[in-house]
Amino acid sequence: MKYVLLILFSCVFFGHAQQQRDSLQSTIDLKEVTVSSLQATSETPMAFSNLTKEELSDRNLGVDMPILLQFLPGTVSTSDAGAGIGYTGIRVRGSDATRINVSINGIPYNDAESQGTFWVNLPDFGSSVGSLQLQRGVGTSMNGAGAFGASINLTTDRISESSYVQLANGFGSFNTRKHSVMFSTGLISNQFELSGRLSKIDSDGYIDRASADLKSYFLQGIFRHQKTQIKALAFGGFERTYQSWFGINGETLQNNRTYNPAGENYNSDGKLIGFYDDQVDNYNQDHYQLHWEQGINAYWSFALGLNYTYGRGYYQELNDLWYDQNISFSGNSSSAYLQLPNSDAIDTENITQKWLDNDFYVANLMAAFEKGKQKLNLGFSYSNYIGDHFGTLIWAQNAGGASPNHRFYENKGEKKDTNLFAKLTHAIGNQWTVYTDVQYRWVDYVAKGMQAGQVPIDVDRNYGFFNPKAGVTYRMAPNQQLYFSVARAHKEPNRTDFENGNPLPEELTDFELGWRYNKSSIQFVANAYFMDYTNQLVLTGAIDEVGAPIRTNSGSSYRLGVELDLNWAISDQWQWQSNLSLSENKNRDFFFERDAKLQSLGNTNLSFSPNVVGASQLHYNPTEKLSMGLFSKYVGEQFLGNIDSPLSKLEAYSTQDINIQYKMTPNWCDSLHLQLLLNNILDKKYVSNGYFYTYDDDWSNPGSITTIEGVGYYPQAGFHFLTGMTISF
């Protein structure tokens, strides 16, 4: 099964290579079927933003996708290593990555079990994206995990009529280097194009030892003949990053903000003697996709998409004996935790690898009908995920007779997701457009076996979710629209939720009301939303041993806000893009157990949900070759937990970046593109992310229980730069 798609790709390419020539104008466009079935348009009564390939490339010097998207409305990006390379994250409207549906050419990219997205597994993928749309709120029906905060739909490069070779090199602070080569054959016989990319990114990171060694590849073939388009892709990445997901406490933040506790090694007297060199996360991920687009007649077309993803890797760590027995009390050094075979085995310093080996299969089928002002999109998607989780002991001071690569836990997760949807856009006269969207998802999730520490996992859940959406758009004038929509969504818990309790699925009703104004020189969108949740799985603020957020059902909660988005071409030389999001994000009637007493806290702030988020991009183009931009970002204060503890408050921050680009066409190449990014030019010392936890102390004062609070921070880099040069032939 793992190689079926590769064989199929080859058969498709060579089987069609001998077809007769046909004009490019007689073919269909991929966007007319797959993308149009998933993406919103000006007639869709929902909030969205589009980014072109050119807009992405303006800042694409090696940073991950969340950093490239940070200036879109309502978005907050984070970076564990502090400079945007390595593990990064994104939140939209306060919703974290587990609620943001991500698809690549309509294929779900979210990890099926954790529901998160790990962009570090696809380094430099932004260089192969042709277009991107971010929908805020529930959005339109998508394949894969439900969207509770946003959805991000990426489409890979479209066909290039001309051949090219492109070399890109970049350098920057923290010993950052990016090298890539891209190519396209251009259209061969007016029917076929092959394109590809190889990339290598390295960085030491702002945080100590938060290094990243990233490699990626991308290969795409497109065949077009009359009303047929076939697109086959193979892409993937390898990442080896030193762990930097533990953060630091407040005292360390003040005295040594780049300190990284990962890999600490102590002697028997509790003296820090160094750090373990291979405290790393090591993962490979390969994707194979096949897309067949077929026009049937003047009204109907359909698309078939197939995908296989193979992921495998581990994180490796030193479990220090002294630290475990005196500070963390995790038990990771105990013979019982390691399942050492001898009855007289003792606790021991050790090095372990915790593995994930998974396979992900997807089949999509979509059909599109368009006649006059009526549009109908039908979709079916089925996915099957199989994930093996296991741990191996690779070294121990006292192995207790364990064999090499002794496995100390094993479990397996399997998830099947079936999705049906139908979307209808119906115009009534010249002013009114009605939109309806109905989706049903079946989710089956099974996880069985033993986790680390011989903690069993036994999950067997089945869910059926009905997600209707409806709205209307009213064209007030040729350049103005009003829209309103109501959407219902449900979402299942993820694996970490089951590991931490008995969670309930989430429910959401999303109301969106907006006004669009569009003229040649100015585009403005004002959008108001009310997102009403039942059993929202909110972030508690705490993290597990690999930095993954822990969630809990909140009961009743809501998000209420206004989003303003402006794009203004002030003159031929000046352009201003800005957005502002103002919101209120609350738990209703929140209860918390403090000092062994259940307390009602009333309405509290939802964690990681700033009430103010803004961005500005001011562009100045003094000549056709030279452009300069001032990029500003503001994120208001937010709480790292849900109990409004003053300790959990993360201060507001703002950053300013300068982007300078120079493009020329010398005689020896087709184009030369020079870039310079000056990030955080005011050298602000800020924190974009953190964690908050509580625990009950019942030993300091026997007979009483005191709730203790703790907090951790992920500091971000001060002033730093990236520079790049791209040569096209």
List the helices and strands and how they pair.
Layout: H1 4-16, H2 34-38, E1 48-52, H3 53-57, H4 65-68, E2 75-79, E3 88-92, E4 100-104, E5 107-108, E6 129-136, E7 150-156, E8 164-172, E9 176-184, E10 192-203, E11 212-225, E12 228-242, H5 250-255, E13 264-266, E14 272-275, E15 280-295, E16 300-319, H6 321-328, H7 335-338, E17 350-371, E18 374-396, E19 406-428, E20 432-451, E21 455-477, E22 480-491, H8 495-499, E23 506-518, E24 522-534, E25 537-543, E26 549-553, E27 556-569, E28 574-594, E29 597-605, E30 612-620, E31 626-635, E32 638-639, E33 649-650, E34 653-664, E35 671-679, E36 687-697, E37 706-715, E38 720-728
Keywords for this structure?
single chain, 729 residues, mainly beta, Maltoporin, Chain A, five-stranded mixed beta sheet, 8 helices, 57% strand, disordered N terminus
Structure report:
- The chain has a single domain, classed as TonB-dependent receptor, beta-barrel domain (Maltoporin, Chain A), CATH 2.40.170.20.
- It is 7% helix and 57% strand.
- The chain is built from 8 helices and 38 strands.
- It has a 22-stranded antiparallel beta barrel.
- Strand 15 and strand 16 form a beta hairpin.
